[in-house]
TrEMBL record:
Xref: SUPFAM superfamilies: DinB/YfiT-like putative metalloenzymes
Protein known as: DinB family protein
One Pfam family this sequence matches: MST
Length: 173
């Protein structure tokens, strides 16, 4: 076999012969990193500028993904007293809105912390671990990981478009 050069930032490529968990985690981490790369180097004004008819902004996407990380990992798998999984459309819409004083830097830091916490929580359970989810019934950690890959990849695509509309930057890495 020829000597193949693999970009180490492409986790899914590096994990291509790993076990199921390694592959799922590599894909999720790859899409998480794409979102962060799309946010880096922007000003607060650029990251909060509305470029599409909806209220979606790049900073809002990052904030939303931090909320989603907390919902699907700590709140479902390791809830603290009083934690509840949000189920309303209002909860979802609010997760995209920056509060007074929030900056791109602060939402990026919150997202990085949420991802680290998600990894920590998920690592304690096997893929077959099942928990109740208020809208779906029982879900496994495997299902949560696949759902989070889908959710994060979808929003990474949105971030691609918003970044290209902001300054012309394209590409995943």
């Amino acid at each position: 076999m020829a000597d193949i050069q693999i970009d180490p930032t492409l986790g899914p490529v590096v994990a291509r012969t790993g076990d199921e968990r390694a592959i799922l985690e590599a894909f999720l981490d790859f899409h998480r990193s794409v979102v962060l790369r799309k946010a880096r180097g922007l000003t607060d004004a650029d990251a909060t500028r509305r470029l599409v008819p909806s209220a979606t902004t790049l900073a809002g996407l990052v904030k939303h993904l931090a909320v989603i990380e907390r919902n699907w990992f700590p709140i479902l798998l390791d809830p603290a007293p009083g934690d509840r999984f949000p189920t309303s459309e209002e909860d979802a819409a609010a997760s995209f809105a920056l509060a007074e004083g929030e900056t791109l830097e602060s939402v990026v830091e919150a997202y990085e912390a949420a991802c680290a916490r998600s990894r920590e929580v998920a690592a304690r359970f096997p893929l077959d671990h099942v928990v109740g989810q208020p809208q779906l019934g029982e879900v496994s950690l495997r299902w949560i990981l696949v759902h989070m890959i889908e959710e994060t990849a979808r929003h990474a695509g949105h971030a691609d478009i918003l970044r290209e509309l902001t300054d012309g930057e394209t590409g995943a890495v």
